Amino acid sequence: MLQKIIQKLLAYRHPWRDVTFNELSEIYATMMIRSLAISMVGIFIPVYLYKLGYSLPAIMSVFGCYFTARIGLDLAAAYTTARIGPKHTLVIGQLMQIISSALFLTLPNFGWPLALLGAFWGGANSFFFIPFHIDFSKVKHRNHGGKELGFEQIMEKIGTALGPLTGGVVASVFGSRYIFLVSIVMLLVGLWPLFKTAEPVRIRQKLDFAGFQYGKVRKYIPAHIGVNVENTLCLLLWPLFLALFVLPGDSVFARVGIMASVSVLVAAFTAHAIGRVVDNKKGRPLLRYSAVANSLVYIVRVFTVSYPMALATNVANEAIT
């Protein structure tokens, strides 16, 4: 149903497309549903663990295990994608994410090792994003990739905007652990679009790094590291900072959820325009200006003392990022 709605809304914007728009709308639907499920829990995990009584070093260790696991599992996801195709690998990623959410849900009952939670969480992202990027690169249009990526970001932002708001309400009314239960249901729903079309690549391939031209990507590595450091700060330290110093009390889940949803909605309105700029070969200067602007936003964040100020900096960060 969601895929048919997306096709009706966006197909006329892809006049250069024919049959392959079905695969594109499948990606849009999958990303929207997954973003809704993940965003319900993602920004709340540090606060959730803190409310359960875990120390800051223990919470940091979850994220340490998350990234340590991804170092090896990114390669495993790449080999799996070559063997069985990106769509089937995406299914594995979704199932791993369901297990990850179930571990967080039952943490108060079973006291799972935090390393296990971090490892499954990292593996779920490895087995989703590696095949997702491969899938998108195979079905995107050669001359309109920026606009199509812009629409993918809009679908992602819609899900990401609804998720924190929904998660905040669920956590405030029923308890923070139940956001993981609702997330599991959404992840199960998100499996359906993946079975609508065939694999976009030949399966049973072998992954060979012998001919990989490292020189072409070496200059992008420092920027990629910086982007991921910034993303981790947003995911881990910013919600904790708000819970400890700006929004103490039981209302933190709802208020952080509302703030995240409003910020992401603003970003959604900018995504398509940014895609058009990239297609017009102006992506590099935009990237540079955005990096400088985001640095200034982080300087302002240090001095955040109120909810309106936190909301303003969050909106700016989402749009710039």
Give your account of this protein's structure:
The protein is mainly α and 321 residues long. The longest helix is centred in the first third of the chain and has 29 residues. The two termini are 31 Å apart. It has 14 helices and no strands. Helix 4 runs parallel beside helix 7, helix 5 packs antiparallel against helix 9 and helix 12 runs parallel beside helix 14. Helix content is 78%, strand content 0%.
Our Rg estimate from Cα atoms comes to: 20 Å
Number of helices: 14
Strand portion: under 5%
Share of residues in helices: over 70%
Main structural class: mainly alpha
Low-confidence stretches: 14-19
Distance between the termini: 31 Å
What's the main sheet like?
none
The coarse silhouette is globular
Instruction: Tell how many strands the DSSP assignment holds.
Output: 0
Descriptive key words:
321 residues; mainly alpha; 14 helices
Summarize the SSE layout with pairings.
Layout: H1 2-10, H2 21-41, H3 45-51, H4 56-84, H5 86-105, H6 107-110, H7 114-139, H8 145-173, H9 178-190, H10 214-218, H11 221-246, H12 252-279, H13 283-301, H14 307-320
Helix pairs in contact: 1-2, 2-7, 2-8, 2-9, 3-11, 4-5, 4-7, 5-7, 5-9, 8-12, 12-14, 13-14
